[in-house]
Amino acid sequence: MIQATQLRKGMCIQHDNELFRVVATQHVTPGNWRGMVQAKIRNLRTGAIIEHRFRSEDRVERAILDENEMEYLYQDGDMFHFMNSETFDQVALSAETLGDAVPYLTPNIRLKVDKRNPSYHPIEDAGQNVDVPSLLYPLRETSIIYCSDCHSGSSGSNSFETRGPHGSNWPFLLEKPYSIADGTVESYQEYELCYKCHDRNVILSDGSLGLHKTHVVDENVTCSTCHDPHGISATQGNATHNSHLMNFDISVVAPDPNTGMLMFEDLGSNRGRCYLACHGAVHSPAEY
Ligand code: HEC
Ligand code: HEC
Ligand code: HEC
């Protein structure tokens, strides 16, 4: 329990048997009246904001949410998904509910590169795929890579290698350019980060039935529209739906209007099926 005067923006409290987050407070001391705390509080269940006047001497139940127990997993539209790392229960909270916390949320990279996942870039352990024809020598399917293979000082002509992982010309402290802008016209430069380890000719020629060339070159679809550079948390997918680092960028791709599904389905070696809608193209499903 805390005194109403101790209420601060951002705190969670229990009030009328519901959970609220304090949005704003104001102390009012009208003349010789008792002090009041005028508070704007947001109901965490309904999202509604109400105003409530507490008397200064009121005691309020502070709700300590197990903040450390909840790991942020991923964003899906306006909703942010969290997992209780002990019970594995998942909850989704809206951007509105999270308020000021949103800019500080970073998807839990540890969960994404976990070797129990359906797919991941091989940082913790060798990868899941035994057939990755694009790998450039000396990389192999059994290779291990490091965060710093992608995140480090940029090697462009006007940068300093000595800045290490703390300075780069490219967003996300990436070592080389990697365009995530929808509609990017493909070139070696735009996806240099990926082409440093994956042979551009093989990707675009290619083993997976022309799938890459059709999308990346002919339709200007970025790698990031289909692939996640880290991996897919096991809480977010499974071996058939999120293999091959597949995780559609939902700012570009929408569910297929006929089935309501937004999904990649792995049908075995170099075969798969997609359900989605993208720039007017509807896959309901499309198979390769
Ligand atoms: C430092 C080297 C390196 C870089 C940079 C790199 N990759 Fe990889 N990638 C690998 C290795 C090694 C594998 C093989 C893992 C395996 O066998 O499962 C791999 C595998 C993959 C796979 C296949 C995964 C699967 O399970 O089928 C995809 C897709 C992929 N990379 C996409 C990308 C994209 C997109 C980029 C650019 C953001 C990128 N890679 C950058 C080293 C790299
Ligand atoms: C294969 C290349 C690659 C590797 C390896 C890699 N990253 Fe990333 N990372 C990226 C790319 C590309 C982005 C930005 C674009 C995106 O998120 O789609 C990114 C973004 C990030 C971000 C910004 C938040 C986010 O997820 O968008 C953080 C933090 C991060 N990486 C941390 C790490 C850590 C920690 C490791 C090692 C465990 C790691 N990365 C390994 C390619 C990589
Ligand atoms: C339209 C969605 C889509 C886009 C865009 C896309 N990929 Fe893929 N990629 C896939 C799918 C699906 C597979 C799995 C193919 C299979 O084995 O069934 C794949 C497989 C791969 C593999 C593993 C097989 C191999 O050829 O070595 C790599 C590496 C890869 N992609 C890299 C990239 C890079 C780099 C880009 C951007 C230049 C990119 N992809 C763009 C859908 C996409």
Outline the structure in words.
There is one protein chain. This protein is α+β, with helices and mostly antiparallel strands and 288 residues long. It has 3 domains: 2-62, SH3 type barrels, CATH 2.30.30.30; 67-106, Nucleic acid-binding proteins (OB fold (Dihydrolipoamide Acetyltransferase, E2P), Beta Barrel), CATH 2.40.50.140; 119-287, no CATH class. It contains 7 helices and 15 strands. The strands form 4 sheets. A 6-stranded antiparallel β-sheet has the order 1-6-2-3-4-5, with no helix packed on it. Strands 12, 13, 14 and 15 form a 4-stranded antiparallel β-sheet that branches. The protein is elongated. The chain starts with a strand and ends with a strand. Residues 119, 121-122, 127-129, 132, 135, 139, 141, 143, 145, 149-150, 178, 193-194, 196-198, 223, 227, 229, 243-245 line the site of one heme C.
Provide the spatial order of strands within the biggest beta sheet: 1-6-2-3-4-5
First-to-last CA distance: 60 Å
Report mean pLDDT, rounded to a whole number.
84
Distinct ligands: heme C
Count of separate structural domains: 3
